[in-house]
Structure formats: structure tokens, C-alpha cells
Amino acid sequence: MKTQILIAALFFSGFITAQQKKDSLKIHAIDAVNIKKQVFKKQGDRLVYDVASSPIAKGTNTFNLLKQTPMISSIDGKTLKILGKSDAIIYINNKKTNMDAEALIEMLKATPSEDIQKIEVITVPGSEFQVESTEGVINIVMKKSKNNGYNGTLKMQNEQGYYNNPNAGASFNFRQGKWSGNSNFRTGSWTERQKYSLSNGDSTFRNESYGFNNDPNNNYSGGFNVDYEINKKQSLGFSYNMRYNKSFNSILDITNWQDGVLTNRTVNHEDAQTRNHSFNLNYEIKTDSLGSKLTSNISYLWFNRDKVSFNESFPLNSNPNNKYSALHQSVPQIINNYAANIDYLKKTAKGATWLMGISYNHTNTDNDTKQDKLQNGEFVPDSKQTNHFIYKENILGIYLNYERKLTEKISGKIGARYEMTRSTGDIVDKTGFERNYNNLLPYLNLNYAINSDHNLSYTFSSRIRRPRFWELNPSRTYFTPTNYTQNNPFIVASKFYNQELNYMYKNAYYANLSFTMVEDASASDMLPLQGKSTGPKLDENGNIMYDADGNMIMETTKFLRYIRTNYGKNRELNLTLGMNKSWFKDIWTTNYSVNLKYSIYKGAVLEDPTSRPGPFETEELEPYIIDVKNYSMSLTLNNVVRLSSKKDWYLGVNYFFASREAMEGGVVGVRQSLDINLKKIIGDWTIVAEVNDLFNQGFYRVEGIQPNGRYNNITNFNYPRLISIGVTYNFGNQKLKKAREMKSANDAVKSRT
User: Fold this and answer.
1) Model confidence over 373-388: pLDDT tens digits?
2) Residue 500 placed within a domain
3) Which keywords accompany this UniProt record (predicted)?
4) How does strand 483-486 pair with strand 554-563?
5) pLDDT tens per residue, range 38-87
6) What's the burial of 439, exposed, middle or buried (CB within 10 Å: 0-12/13-18/19+)?
7) SS (H, E, C) 404-417
8) 16: part of which helix (H) or strand (E)?
9) Domain holding 69: CATH number?
10) Domains: count for the chain
11) pTM summary value
12) For residue 359, is it within any domain?
């Protein structure tokens, strides 16, 4: 094409010169025409970041590239957020990634940015996407080339936090004729260190707890994907992914005071192993030359987490109510999921697109929790806290979308997703429930391209949020004998209604206004429930005590339980203003955004849905009232500066700030993080030195005060400052086309494990 343009230019310049001589006309030559490609633009229901045209896309990895993408942010190096609020679901070439969250982040960090063509940000996804609540979609579009050959990446990184945490990974891709494939393997070890400060009470009493948690982890993960092109219209693919995590000798050590008096010390030792295996078989056939196609998937997921713990409480004063206690606990979780789906994409000659599909998911979870308590010097089963919970869920989904361009300036997309859910939960020999519900989830997007500088769009979507499977498992984790966390098998799905108005100016500046309504809302974290229970007094061996007349001696104890449950409704209004722009001939690239939020949380928890008092026991729970109206803001400033004309030295300076924010469980304190990185590119090698959260300000503090004066305060300091050095080596043909990414039928279930 360049040769043809050059020949045409020479021809017409000669023709003009001849005409100039012949007709004695004065013609002014045009020296040059500079056309700059749009890096960031609005297209239909998504915002497109053209990475190939961006100056920051050289010599980095995909995860860092996503952090620099407009509307996307990350403050912990482990998760990605859209507009500072919505969790991000990753798709690659319009196919949802088939791996768990931690393995996915490692894969993104190992993928060279040079492989990426563009990044699409969909803040409110259509009916065809398997997402929940307010989740958004990031679709990564890879560069395409049909060259045969192979390539790969080797990466080593050493991270220094409270402990030293090394990790390494490798990936390999190949293409030969009709066969293509890729594989990856990652391994690493890290130890999480957290320091806790807990306090609760009212004007009449106060409890205080201080301690730490050390959680060592060893992780191995990997997988492969093989694709065979049967002919030009048909393809068959198979993928497998696995992850194994071992966390042995995790220690939670808490010392407790009551009304300023040292009472006891609780130590919890925990060993846990997690295994995750997933398989997917994919078939795709193109049905015409316009791009219509039929896609089908069959998937299987097996998830197994084994956790055993030994909890001891040691008395630290002579109070007779303080006595040594201990318990053993086993909390296994097994998930089996079988899934299938069929999608048909139909494109018409008039430019319209139809998408219709059907999906089915069957999930069976088995959680056989066992607990033994110390009694008469021996451990005996505690029937009250032994729960064999079996949960079965069947979801049938049908969805339909229609998209077309109505005029030269107006385009639209309308769709709906209908889901039928049938589920049963059974706590063997105790209680059970059955939940059957249907949901019609409509979707609408209208886009108005006012002119080349202005674009306006409106989107409406309805979604639900089903409880994660581990949230349903009714197991406890103890801080003290009367202070623990517990999941809730009776929690129900929440309903979300999302609206969004987006305006873009000159493909560089944007404003996003969104409004979300939630019914049957559940807190983003557990709610602190306080109260007192009265029952028979037990001696140090766990036997009931009697007075001289043969009457039971009763005693009253105060408790604090962190319970996950539904509470009511919330409303959230967000305004995000952002800018993505390069300065001084692309030497300095900026990605700035500010988010302003107004939230209303309203509801109450009047009883503990997980509590089952025994014989002769009574319980009084202080009502937990949620009536919050709150303004908050967050700020993200990302800067990349090219330090050399050879484009081999780069400096990154990023800053995040979040103001105090009132939520269901209390007021979250100010958080901020200053990150600095220096990158050097040497041929196929990239060396990066980073400091994340330089001033250790990215930890959580929560203050919760109820109308009756009861309070609950938590500080969780997780040593957020991290210093790391990473070395990446890319080998082989870097323009090799990736194997066809395949959508797995059980993607929606993976996120709930």
C-alpha cells in the first residue's frame, strides 16, 4: 500500500508540474500532511484504548499497561477496578479468561505489551456477558499474525515487604499450520503479615484486642490451550488450567483486654491447601462471509480447599471466669461444576447484529465442617458447631441482543437475559432451605456521535449478585472465644439496577455519571453484631455447674460476631471526570481521574440468622441499624515520563487517594498510595524496579458507631509498602499470533469460588 501511494504521489506531482508549465498556473505545493491516530475513543457500548498508537505501550507488561488505561486503576497490584468502584472481569479477544484471579494477574504480568492491539473498557456490559452486580468488562484484543513459529517469556521477580517473596514464571506459544497452542507455568512464595487492632463496647464496658497474623503461602499454577483449525470455517479447541496453593502454619495471635484489664490470649494455628482444576472443550463454525458464527462449550470445574485449625485461649489473670479452652476445627470445601453453552452471532447485510444464546450450570458444593471442643481433658465432637452443609444450584440462562446503526450519528443496542435459578441447601440433620427464582435482566445502550469532538451515550442494565460459595459455608474463625466471624448459608441474591451517562470530548477528556440501585443488599464485608447470651455455667472441663440447692448456675457473656447477611437497600451516585493525554511530543503521558460519590445505605439486622441457641440458653442481640448518607471522593494520577530519546528509559510516578467513606460496617479511613517505578529496556530484556505505597498509607481503618452508642473499631495494617525488582526476557517470534482464546461455559461459577 505504501508503494502504491508513493507511485501515485510521484505520478500526480509530475502531472501537476506538466500542467503548471503548460498553463502557466501558480501552484503551491503541500509539503506534508500529518494524521495522528486517535488513541482513546468511544465506540458503541465501549471505550477503546488503541495501545498500538500509545507511547507508553513499549517494553512493559499487560498488567502495567491496564493500570495506565483510562478508567482502570489498581492500588494493590492484585486487582483491577473500573472507574474506581466496579470489579473488572477480563476477556481476551471477546472470550472470558479461563483461570482464577491470582493466576490471571500473573498471566497479565507475563504478557508483553507489544502483543496488545487495543484495550476495550465496557463499564456497563451487555446481556451476552457473564457478569454480576456492577462488574465491568476489560476486553484485551491481541495483535494478529498468521506466521508460523514460536515465542515465549521468562520472568523472575523478587518482592520485599515485611518478608521476602520471590516468584518466577514462563509462557510458551506456538503456531504451525492448522495447529496452535500456548502454555504457562507460575510458581512463587509469599508470606502475608498483618497487624490487628480491634475495640468494641459502649459507655458501660469496652473490649480491646491486639495481635498479628502470619500467613505463609506457596503457589503453583499453569495450564495449556490447544486449537485445531479443521478448515477455514471450523475450529476445535481444548484448554486446561490448574492452581495449587499451600498455606501451612498460618498463625493468628490475639491478646485481649476487658475494661482495661488483661484477660486472655488466643492463638489460632491453621493449615490449608487449595486445588483448582478446570477443563473446557470448544467448537466454533463460521456460517457466512459477514462474520456470523456458532460457538459451543462444554466445561468442568473441580475446586477443593482443605483447612484445619487448632485454637487455644490462655487465661492471663486470676478471674475464675477466665479458663483455658481449646478446639479443633476442620473446614473442607469441595465444588463440582458442570456447564454448557451455545451462542449464535448473526450479522446482516444491512449492518445489524443479532446475538442469541443459551447456557446451563449445575453446581454441587459439599462443606463438611467438624469441630471438637476440650472437655474433661479430651477433645469431643461439638454437635452445635458441626455442620455438614450441601448446596446444589441449577441455573438456566437465555439471552438475546440486537445491535445496529440507526443513522450516521446514532447507534443502539438492546437485549435481555432471562435466568432461572433452582437451588437447595441442606445442613444435614439440622435444617435446610429451597430457593427458586426467575430474573429478567434487560439491557439498553444508545450512542450519539454529536460530531468528531463530542460523543454522548446512555446505558441501562439489570443484574444480580449471587453469594460466593465460600460465603454460604457456615463455618467460624475465632479471634477470641466470644469474638468470631461466620458465613451465612441463608444469604440471598441481591438485585442491581445500573444506569450510566457518558460524555467524551476530543477523545481525551471524559465525564461519567452513574446511578445504581440495590435491593436485598448485603454488605461488602461482614457486619459486627453485638449482644449477650445467657446459659448454664460450665466448669473448666465443660460440665454444667449447680448450686447447693441443685439449681443450674446461669451466667451471661457478651459477644461480638462478624456475620455476612442481607440488610436492606442502597443507592449510589457516581461522577467521574478523567483525562488521558500526552504532552511534549509524547515525552510525558498522563492518565488522571477523580471520582465523586454520594451513597445511601439503609436497613437493619435484627437477629443473627446463623444462631441456634441450645437448651436453657437465651440470646439478646442489639439491633444493628444502617442509616448512612455519605459523600466521598477518590483521585488517581498516573504519569509516565520517557527519559531518553532511544525510548529505553522510563519513569513512572503514580498517586492514589481515597477520602473517608461511610459504609454499612462503619467509616473507612483515608487511604493513599504513592508508587514509583523505573524501567530499562535492553533488547529483549526488560528490567523494572518499583516501590509501591512508599509511605505505608494504603491500609484499612474502620470506625463503626451505632445510634445506641455501641462502637466497633478495626485497624488492619498489612504492611503495604513493597519494593520489587523484576527481569523479563522475551524470546522467539514476537509477532506470532496467539492461539484462539476460548470462552468457558462455567466462567460465571469460577468467580464465585
Assistant:
1) 888 888 999 887 888 9
2) no
3) Cell outer membrane, Membrane, Receptor
4) parallel
5) 677 877 788 888 886 665 666 567 887 888 788 888 776 677 888 877 78
6) middle
7) EECCCCEEEEEEEE
8) helix 2-23
9) 2.170.130.10
10) 1
11) 0.84
12) no
